[in-house]
Amino acid sequence: MQRLVGATQRHVLNGPTMGTRYAAVFHARPGLDASAIAADLQAAVDLVDRQMSTWKPDSDLSRLNRAPIGTPVPIPAALAEVLALGLEIGRHSGGAFDIGMGAMVDAWGFGPRGGGIDAAAATARAAEAAVTATECLSLDGGVATRLRPVGIDLSGIAKGYGVDRLAAALEAHGIRDYLVSIDGELRSAGLKPGGIQWAVALEQPQRGLRAAAEVLHLVEQAIATSGDYRHFAEADGRAVSHSIDPRSRRPVANGVASVTVSARTCAAADAWATALLVLGETEGPALAQRLGLDAIFLVRSADGIRRIEVGSLGHSDAVMA
Question: Rounded to an integer, what distance in angstroms lies between the CA atom of residue 176 and that of residue 166?
Answer without folding.
Answer: 12
